[in-house]
Amino acid sequence: MLETIIIFYSLYTFMKLYISVMQIGYINEEKRKTPVLMSAEKYLVAGNYAVANGKLGLVNTLVDYLVFIWWVFAGFAWLSSYIQVEGNILQAVAFLFGFIVVNYIIGLPFELYQQFKIDEDFGFNKMTPKMYVVDTLKSTLLFVVLGGAVFALLAWIIENYDSWWLWGFVAMFTVAVLANVLAPTFMALFNKFSPLEEGELKEQISAMMNEVGLKNDGIFVMDASKRDSRLNAFFGGLGKSKRVVLFDTLLEKLTTKELLAVLGHELGHYTHGDIWKNIGLMGLLLFIAFYLFGHLPDALFIEMGVVPEAGVKIAMLMLLLPLLSFVFTPFMSYVSRHNEYAADEFGSAMGGKENLVSALMKLVTENKSFPKSHPLVIFFYYTHPPVLERLKELGFDASNTIVGEEAVEEEGLPTDGIFALMDKNDH
After folding, report:
1. DSSP summary character for residue 308
2. Does pTM surpass 0.85?
3. Long-range contact list for 353-358, CB < 8 A, 24+ apart?
4. Coil, helix or strand for 413?
């Protein structure tokens, strides 16, 4: 069984590496061609940024593979020998914290290089080392409290139910939905939220929300610029009562009409029920994951030199989840891209097609998002259509367009958020 899992994980790693290599080669070639949406200088910078991220991703993927091999052949057994705590639940929680700490330490250099080297070089990072340490301490404390509670709950379920995978799925799905709802609350621990000042923008946002049957639960500006120069915003809440959070960087770069067009796009997601569709897809993935990994035979754990106790089972699920997610990613990305076209149509109807076009074109330059990608990357990772395709659907052919200082893009970001308009692909 262990041999089979290693084969599948090796194939998964090879595919990720192959896609990344294709993307790096594609962008290195395209960035030297006639620029679109940006000036030649900005086009080259955006291409270089994408390549730098791609190369870091390549190394990260290789290290992840080596770490996986180490965990299944020696790591679990090593950690089990060091983590010895009285009580099955406490033992499981301690083991999982140890598992996460080891992974965090291994991944820390990549995070620091991304933040303080790549993002710093390309003008995104505004975070100081002191701010980074403070944020890390806050997030660690939050994780110890909330993560410890979730781990204890899962371990208790495993210890008390034969069909633990089913009840574990129910528990984790509930936690995921709650996390989505409470995300703005958690973000308040790291950022300052100020009510949007009275004026035309606030009135028009409220009017747009009322038009689609949403209740305004507050419109706030977040001081995102102290950490990062990229533009973003999001809606909070799953019901009809919504909180709107706008990054201060967004207010600085977009006009009122452009911002309203983008908000109209997100309201289109609400009207079409896309948030619930995304939650449903997430639930389906979680269900399959818990079912498959909940039926791993005890012999597998014995092969790894460990007892199949709660902490080890949960850690194995966490270790293998990226593999399963990768298999489902193309389908989920396809559904999301389809939803984005419909949301663009809705947003252009509410806020004006020309305003949505100009907003998209600004975002591409401000976020230094290269407007082209290899077809494999689009197929696997893009939760949003390529910006050139989005503009074309809006009736604007940008294939030979250069927009001096301002332009925009969006590729595949997480599906939730008022903008999933910035590329945050994980490759």
Report:
1. -
2. no
3. 353/394, 353/395, 355/255, 355/257, 355/258, 355/260, 355/261, 356/258, 356/261, 356/262, 356/264, 356/265, 356/394, 357/391, 357/394, 357/396, 358/255, 358/258, 358/408
4. coil
Nearest to 418 by CA among 271, 288, 273, 235: 235
| Residue 407 resides in a domain | no
| Domain boundaries, position 178 | 2-199+227-393
User: What residues does 215 pair with on adjacent strands?
Assistant: 241
Lookup: tokens for 57: 């991703």
What pLDDT, on the 0 to 100 scale, is given for residue 36?
83
Q: Which of 235, 338, 336 is nearest to 282 (CA)?
A: 336
Tokens in use for 169? 């799925």
* Residue 130 domain-assigned (yes or no): yes
Confirm whether 109 is domain-assigned: yes
Task: Answer whether 222's CB lies under 8 Å from 235's CB.
Answer: no
Residue 241 parent element (H or E): strand 241-247
Domain count across the chain: 1
User: What residue type is assigned to position 6 of the chain?
Assistant: I
- Let me know if residue 370 belongs to a domain: yes
* Counts of helices then strands in the chain (DSSP H, E): 16, 4
Q: pLDDT digits over 297-345, tens only?
A: 888 988 888 888 889 999 999 999 999 999 999 998 999 999 999 988 8
The CA-based angle 202-208-214, given to 5 degrees, is 100
Identity of the residue numbered 171: A
